[in-house]
Amino acid sequence: MKLNNKYFPILLFSALALGVVLGGMLNFPNTSEYLVKNNSKSKLNKLIDFIDKEYVDNVNTDSIVNLTVDNILAKLDPHSVYMPASEQLQIAESMKGNFVGIGVNFYMYKDSVAVIKPVANGPSAKAGIESGDRILYADKTKLFGRKLPSDSLFSKLKGTIGSDIELTIYRKSEDKKLKIKIRRDVIPIKSVDVALLLDQNTGYIKINRFAETTYKEFMEGLIKLKKEGAKSLVIDVRDNGGGYMEEAIAIADELLPNKQLIVFTKNKNGNVDKTFATEKGSFEKGNVFVLLNENSASASEILAGAIQDNDRGTIVGRRSFGKGLVQREMDFADGSAVRLTIARYYTPTGRSIQKPYTKGNEAYFKETDSRFTNGELYEKDSIKVEDNIKFKTKKGKVVYGGGGIVPDVFVPLELEHGNEGTAYLLQSGIVGNFAFEQLDKNRRVFKGLTFEQFQEKMTATDVYFNAFQKFIFGNGLDLNFGKSKAVVKRFLTAEFAR
């Protein structure tokens, strides 16, 4: 009989309780090895040892420990979590801002590892790897025809800095196999996607997460934009789930005058830690706009809250996620880690933007889905605000706590009510897969075009739109894009350009 993992602790402890009742009737060894004082902390360790040494079948006690830790943390809050070693390594690399590898974007296309594109100036690009190449072997390890998961592929291609790997590739455009030796190097994982001018006076910076290098990347972009004439600044943190709050605070410091409060935290002992802006701000005068949506969380909300509460700029978009908890990480020797909530943070006016989580973790994370059905992604008047959690900025603007940052200027979802499936789809990787497969048929189709000619090719006809609709139906998804053609075509154009 297969048991659902979530019921295993209940069944395990029920079995032990039954054992106490039946103990006098069974052949039980006469030992006091597992008799312990009624100490809750030592109980768990003794129980695991007991199972490991005496249980009738072989049991992976590590899996029991992981399950126990998960269940303990689930009783606390949605953001106190346990991360196995495999997941923790990926998260750590993402937050560090770099890893050691060969520098390619790839995905499994049919039964092959297909290169979407090599990272600019990375080891693969320098060695001559091209978009569309199929990686057949990494040294002598066969990669095709095995449908390997992404983490297995990453482990084959990553390594130590300066180490060599020989790839056997198939180049479709030349119909031949090649052996290419690549020396692994540090590959940056950018957290600032782009910094460019929207017009002569308006700079735009897109931040995808707050990692160790985010403030540095932001400043590089800001300095460049100021040199190009930017007098106003748009900071885009849509779909940015957060990261290191220190990086968000450092960016806010560049935008706020000296001694203005950025954020403060409070722990269970009531200790308050306030963080103020310093004198170093490099963009304290120009107009600031922060773009938010329902997937903007944590550090993104700290930045937006500091700008909104200090009357420094305008928040544009839709109500943010609503994460007002601060975590600290505890690492274990096996590479796993626990991320534990240690405090709440508050915006300068004193509001907590943490949304309720009393109904459990599943309901908590599905709350953003309910915003489709209750209409708040389409109409500002549908946003539920708590009138009893009302605050005022120094200039008298009313702001609310209790569940995310409510924007000053509301921008509705472009899709019609009822087309939520299309919204989710366009944010998934399937658009990129379609673009790759289309380009893979003829990689010269866009060669030599100007940007204007490229846009014309993508939008003048419905060739790619119709092909994408057919692609979606072919993948078993019953989504008709007829009422969302303009939005879908724009997503397709952007993905082809990328």
Automatic annotation (TrEMBL):
<feature type="domain" description="Tail specific protease">
    <location>
        <begin position="175"/>
        <end position="356"/>
    </location>
</feature>
<dbReference type="Pfam" id="PF13180">
    <property type="entry name" value="PDZ_2"/>
</dbReference>
<dbReference type="GO" id="GO:0008236">
    <property type="term" value="F:serine-type peptidase activity"/>
</dbReference>
<comment type="similarity">
    <text>Belongs to the peptidase S41A family.</text>
</comment>
<dbReference type="Pfam" id="PF03572">
    <property type="entry name" value="Peptidase_S41"/>
</dbReference>
<keyword id="KW-0720">Serine protease</keyword>
<dbReference type="InterPro" id="IPR004447">
    <property type="entry name" value="Peptidase_S41A"/>
</dbReference>
<dbReference type="InterPro" id="IPR005151">
    <property type="entry name" value="Tail-specific_protease"/>
</dbReference>
<dbReference type="InterPro" id="IPR036034">
    <property type="entry name" value="PDZ_sf"/>
</dbReference>
<dbReference type="InterPro" id="IPR029045">
    <property type="entry name" value="ClpP/crotonase-like_dom_sf"/>
</dbReference>
<dbReference type="GO" id="GO:0004175">
    <property type="term" value="F:endopeptidase activity"/>
</dbReference>
<dbReference type="InterPro" id="IPR001478">
    <property type="entry name" value="PDZ"/>
</dbReference>
<protein>
    <submittedName>
        <fullName>Carboxyl-terminal processing protease</fullName>
    </submittedName>
</protein>
<dbReference type="GO" id="GO:0030288">
    <property type="term" value="C:outer membrane-bounded periplasmic space"/>
</dbReference>
<dbReference type="GO" id="GO:0006508">
    <property type="term" value="P:proteolysis"/>
</dbReference>
<keyword id="KW-0378">Hydrolase</keyword>
<dbReference type="GO" id="GO:0007165">
    <property type="term" value="P:signal transduction"/>
</dbReference>
<keyword id="KW-0645">Protease</keyword>
